[in-house]
Protein 1
Amino acid sequence: MTDSAAAGSSHRGAEGPYYGPYGGRWMPESLIAALDEVEQTFGEAREDEEFVAEYQRLCRDYTGRPSLLAEVPRFAAEQGAARILLKREDLNHTGSHKINNVLGQALLARRMGKTRLIAETGAGQHGVATATAAALMGMECMIYMGAEDTRRQALNVARMRLLGAEVVPVEHGAKTLKDAINEALRDWVATVENTHYLLGTVTGPHPFPSMVRWFHQVIGEEAREQMLAQEGRLPDAVAACVGGGSNAMGIFHAFLDDAEVALHGYEAGGDGVETGRHAAAITLGRSGVLHGARSYLMQDEDGQTLDSHSISAGLDYPSVGPEHAHLADSGRAVYEPVTDAECMTAFETLCRTEGIIPAIESAHALAGAARLSAAWTAEDPEAAAERIIVVSLSGRGDKDVGTAAEWFDLLDEQQERQERQERQERLDEDEQGDETGVQA
Amino acid sequence: MSITADAVEAARAEGRSAFIGYLPAGYPDKEASIAAAIALAENGADVLEIGIPYSDPVMDGPVIQQATTEVLARGFRMDEVFEIVAAVSAATDAAVLVMTYWNLIDRMGPAVFARRLAEAGGAGAITPDLTPDEAEAWIAAADAHDLDRVFLAAPTSTPERMRRIAESSRGFVYGVSLMGVTGARTEVSDAAERVVSAAHEAGAERVCVGLGVSTRAHVEEIGAYADGVIVGTALVAALRDGGPEAVAAKAAELSGRG
Ligand SMILES: Cc1ncc(COP(=O)(O)O)c(C=O)c1O
């Protein structure tokens, strides 16, 4: 491994700005100076022992790292013969992997003398983590969230507000994650002097893809060490869900040069990629530029971005981090879509068999692991029984209980009818409100 | 020779700065957008910017966003841009630039886009999310079809970047007057004059200033030091509220011919 790294064929430690033909910095000139400042500050900070020590201290004493690597035998038994271990990022403070990146960038923001953090959020997990870091460091905080997502993830909106952040529902476009990013960028162009844009995944202009990955690499480094300590060997496969791709890059990175470890990324297949209602950028996208990076992109024949669809707000994004695009082309990692239905089956199974409620995002990775185990078992049950899959359980599902209750019809009918009626009344009121607004 | 540079120099020869107006392609519909652009040229615009509606316009404020979102919602396609540019450049003497986010060029292919733009009589393109660092393919395609390429310069651009921007631009350098997105402002930022002198010092022959310019007073103030003044949102709002006639009146007022 060290030899191949020395020979220059290592996949690890890619610095950007380019990953093969992907990545780069397709941004308005107004933001280039700020991106240069972030790049330089990050470059210095990662070599600064004090900075690294403070980051690691926060990861330990605030986030609760290292996170567990724990086997889920009852879940695994329902899928096939292979063993399945979960990397429990859901146990981190704030409930997902997002905090790893947020604490790192918040420290950088402080180092740059910025006093205000802004961020986009889809599921609300990144927004919650950013609001948390802002509270911890005494910074001002504004979170942009698609109006569609503020409805699906209402609980997280309340959490962010409790933490002192201002939450701005974005009413443009599809009213989801990509539109929240547009709005955050518009804010940043006007406020760069005192504001850091704390981008929440491995997308965006250089240096965000490599910097965000660096702060998440700890996931894979821990998982690799834990495998060696607990099992005496590396896993056969690592599975992670891919929205922008930060939890996946974080866990993949440590294994990139372990050729015997298969890397599987699972994108949101929505209603099924054949329906067009999905968010499977790698599976069906083609190269394009969005939000500062060249990568796989869901776009129409004219280059207009297509609306993505997924039951999971955190995966509802029409592109993907540029390093994933490169890993897909090189074949080092394999990406497949998982439909809403498959993901919700895995979600329910983990709840029922292990007493763990996963984030719907992470349930895509569970469904992928289930698919792998079933395929191996069909091929050769004895060999499959010797195999181990590590799944990145990127977050917990508290925020998703409402969505799951609807999906599985868990509320009794009378209550449901009443809630539906109330929701309709609220919508009617909103519409009337809007109309008055326009007339005024 | 550069059509855009000629238009700016012609204004200079008359002892004034060039007046440059932006309107979105296809807003509120194809015919009205052609009529509005022609009205703009007939009422003092030396250079026209035809903005191509895009799904993710990160440099645009609410007025332009709303207009371009409406155009996309009615099924706008790229072919329309070339039809509009052809109709407008046939009917006026103004230089006709398009303003476009990069992915629309990328998807068509820079070479095809440049050929079609040149065939339509277009002068070149302004590319708000493309810096010279990523522009190799665009510069080659624009050169192959003798098109102008206008890059942006910001208050935060370093002297080194200013030089690169000046060297890479043809036609003029677009000086961003303030840190922010498009939209009318009540006052001209004092950053505008610094951007213009920095770009001139870096070797740019023509520097035109835009973002937030919305009144005749702004145009006069900026015209005192810049080679051209760019107005967008104020014209789009006029088109929204009063159609092509309102654009004609607003353009006449802004250009000082009212
Ligand atoms: C729990 C969880 N997992 C995954 C994601 C997707 O992001 P990424 O692909 O960057 O890991 C999100 C995003 O909101 C999330 O909340």
Note: The longest strand of chain A covers residues 262-272.
Protein 2
Amino acid sequence: MGYRLTIDKHREHAIELMELLQDEIGSELVTAITSASQANEPEIFEQRARVKEMTDIVERLDTPLARQLLSVADNLVKKSVWIMGGDGWAYDIGFGGLDHVIASGKDVNILVLDTEVYSNTGGQKSKATPLGAVAKFAAAGKPSPKKDLGMIAMSYKNVYVASVAMGSNDGQTVRAFMEAEAYPGPSIIIAYSQCIAHGIDMTKGMNQQKLAVESAYWTLYRYNPLLAAAGKNPLLLDSKPPKTHVREYAMNEARFTILKRINPKMSDHYLEESDLAAKEKYDYYAKLAALSYDKA
Amino acid sequence: MNRKMVTIDGNEAAAYIAHKTNEICAIYPITPSSNMGEHADAFSAQGRRNIWGTIPTVEAMQSEGGAAGAVHGALQTGALTTTFTASQGLLLMIPNMYKIAGELTATVFHVSARSLAAQALSIFGDHSDVMATRATGWAMLSANSVQEVMDMALIAQSSTLQTRIPFIHFFDGFRTSHEVLKIEQLNDDDIKGMIDDEWVIAHRKRGMNPNDPVLRGTAQNPDVYFQGRETVNPFYEATPEIVQKTMDRFARIAGRSYHLFDYYGAEDAERVIVIMGSGAEAVEETVDHMLAAGERVGLVKIRLFRPFSIKHFINALPASVKKIAVLDRTKEPGGAGEPMYQDVITAFAEAKSEAYYQFDEMPLIVGGRYGLSSKEFTPAMIKGIYDELIKDKPKNHFTIGIRDDVSFTSLDFDPEYHTSKPGNFRGLFYGLGSDGTVGANKNSIKIIGEGTDNYAQGYFVYDSKKSGSTTTSHLRFGKEKIRATYLIDKASFIACHQYELLDQFDILSNAEEGATFLLTSHLNKDEIWGALPRHYQKQIVDKKIKFYVIDAVTVAKETGMGSRINTIMQTCFFAISGIFPKDEAIAKIKEAIKKTYGNKGDVVVEKNYNAVDQSVSNLFQVDVPNTLNGSDVRRLIVPEAAPDFVQQVTAEIIAGRGDALPVSAMPIDGTWPTATTQWEKRNIALEVPVWEPDICIQCNKCALVCPHAAIRPKITTPDAFDNAPETIKHIGAKGREWEADSQYILQVAVEDCTGCNLCVEACPARDKTNLSRKAINMADQRPLRDSERINWDFFTDLPEVDRGNVKAGSVKGSQLLQPLFEFSGACVGCGETPYVKLASQLFGDRMVIANATGCSSIYGGNLPTTPWAKNNAGRGPTWNNSLFEDNA
Ligand SMILES: Cc1ncc(C[n+]2csc(CCOP(=O)(O)OP(=O)(O)O)c2C)c(N)n1
Ligand code: SF4
Ligand code: SF4
């Protein structure tokens, strides 16, 4: 967020300074730079060239104003601001800050690498840890379900939200990254990430992603506010209807199977609940995605 | 009740007492304290009860701020409550700590002291975090060893209930929190003997209760706030005496005697070191050695740092003292001196006019810094400090253990000074994080510690790569109490559990004369000597090293142990180390195996027994010839093409010589160059993917899922291959978007690949005639290493695709873009890094990244080399780590 504030402020200041130096730079170039939409890469490349042309002129001026302008001119080319972190950050300790950023409407992209535990410190539970998974600090299985961070973000209506799992649908992942970055406001991508803390055969990580989506343990979707503005439903549900039980996915992961060994009854109970909740969540998202936004 | 001897680490010792003496633990993970919370959680999950017969509630919170808040709440309603933390976590607790102290609430926080994030984050140990809490009004009690952690945890708990002053009980992160030591465990009677029921009841009574309502936490104004702040003074005044009485009571119960300030050394010492924490153990050992040499030196261990009792401190010193060095394990830039130094100066200045002051002339006092971020603190350095004190004008505000060629604060010392006694066992074991070396060594310590009257110590050093990381285990055994709180630099036994590591480290450099060296190797009796690098041969001959070899990999395979060589190496260690007679040693290992695998059935146990027997019969001693015929070419650490900074600084860190880098080599403000992982060729994959162009459908799915950006496609013109290396492969590019006869190439960086297999799994193309064969298949890395290195260099020189020509929004197109995040140290098969890499491909040349602490900040920013990279135009992501709690 701090990065965004600097970039926006310095862009604004660069424009102010360019206007003061308009005579030297040439008003056409100034207008071209200030009005460039920079909506895609080729346009950004053009903008880079324009800014270079401008700074070449300004460098020769060697006045205090010129030196000021040179020190902020880089910000006239679109930068891509990213906040990255894990689920421990996004769901727990940093949630207040994250919430504030997405509420701010600023053009910031957030990538949540969701391993469903605090991986770096050895796998302690977070609020992204699913029901019934054994993690550190949840030695008897987590008794509460995962929080739906995407739904919270969508409640703001002006936030781009995507839930992805590249092992299930890689095309959707790439599209989500492109759309998130292009969206001129806050974007958040929640990315399913397998981790050694799951106790899986790591060569099969991408397959676990597939199983997760097939059972609706994980849902793929993209919520793009630009669609709503165009009178369309902003929510695109990218997962197919579930075809398997969550068990099919969970039984490849030691975080679930451990409980099956130490407390089979609880484990069964949790798995049934998770499956039910997964299907309900899918239905709910499907209903939301089917709502009509047609204003006519 | 008998007391058990246990071999545990500092964290477990603290958690043991905390769990026995509390009702509620509100926790949050942070290295190196997380294990305390994990133990507490596991104890409760196992149904273990505290001394009052109830199972403590363990509640994980959303942050340390939350944990401290929950602690405050639980305390205010009368529960015995604790938490465990360190570093940034402790900082987040500070606001609540002021309140807890202001409300005179009894509690103990157990802290494994750790560095704070300044120019960089560090998970290692020093006192920066606890020193930042000095002003909160908490008592601070230091434990210097694992045994003391258990003891002080209880003394703190008892004292807080009596004094109503909250306590931080702290000990050094990693050095003490993770050191495994054989110690005496306090039993329930001991613990009950230290805590009177009436104190507990009084604590509960102070809790808020609607049956007897009160109001705490008012908003006060200029008229009364100040006076309100002064009400607590008598409690602070009374605390030191109460803590001393508690220590005395502890001595009567447990037999170990402590004082607020413990003096150790000559009665007529002239030179004294004042120190707190694990370093005191090493000083004590050095003092013994110096006393034996007739030097008049001594040491004061500060135990109760807050409230600081000037009288007790002054009276702890012999009247003969002329010079004092106060050693702080922290840094306060811009201060008049570090905290302990300032306290000692103040103590003398204030005590001067008191009746108890015993000095004719005030001693000369200097301050020094040592051991930041677990920097080694050895007898040699300690001797260097005592020697400095001989000078008329010893250096003040010095540093020890580094070379400061910028402000010239550092003291010189003679690195050859040692205190180690012959006869004690000191073993170094080199292995990989994944090969079970550390686990086997922990097991050995238990066997030896609990099966003999030997004292035992284990300390484990990891590099912080998440894949292919190396480990060094430092094991000491001996008849005397072990006070060596530093790494082993004179080893009587050295084991190398991975042949490849011979290249990476100078493994025998720490071997003492006559040491034993155990190596695993695929080479036999006749081949092994000639294959050793020359400098190894020389050291073996010069130091008269007894050299043993086993082919652990083959034994493991043949005995059905798969790739786990740990039991085999452990058996060999027992067989030749001489700690037990050989037969007894083998019997002990088998006993341990039975204990561990007994519940998995006889077959598993027999399999392990067989591995043990086979290990013994395959182990051989090498007759050391006098001929030095090995190769003396040493592998370049980084290629010659690497930039100067990488050659001069990064390469030294990679080579394990970072300790020797001077201050001037460091960036002044924590700014490091990007794109450096490309220079660290780790060669950690046993198998790597090999491409079959004719089967490949050019979907680029393999490149997308690769966590390490180690498999990459490019599209080029055919003439690009005019001078291509022999074994390079390419094929006509599929797709209408390319000009006719464009070429597609898929290249693997075999030296950077981790062998995770994700790319092969992702590959959808199969050989129609042989369905098990895909367009990429895993093959042994070794035979491919040299040719593929050349191919990779050729590949990287091929032009990148024109970004304007690719459909970046598709899987296929996105993967033709250059990844600007490559070869990170993330785990083999990590699910996070493919996303990070994708973002770097799509937007890398204009990305500004704020990375919350977590795996991504570690594989993204952990030295020596970092994966964020630059394109040919010099553009690339620019990156900073934000605080875990504050990435917004
Ligand atoms: C205030 C604070 N508390 C705790 C920590 C210790 N810590 C570092 S990373 C981490 C967990 C990261 O988990 P997550 O955000 O899920 O990321 P992952 O490692 O899974 O990628 C913790 C607890 C810290 N650095 N700062
Ligand atoms: S696989 Fe390893 S690097 Fe990746 S998130 Fe898990 S612990 Fe971290
Ligand atoms: S084996 Fe793993 S690291 Fe190696 S190229 Fe394939 S995906 Fe990348």
Note: The radius of gyration of chain B is 30 Å.
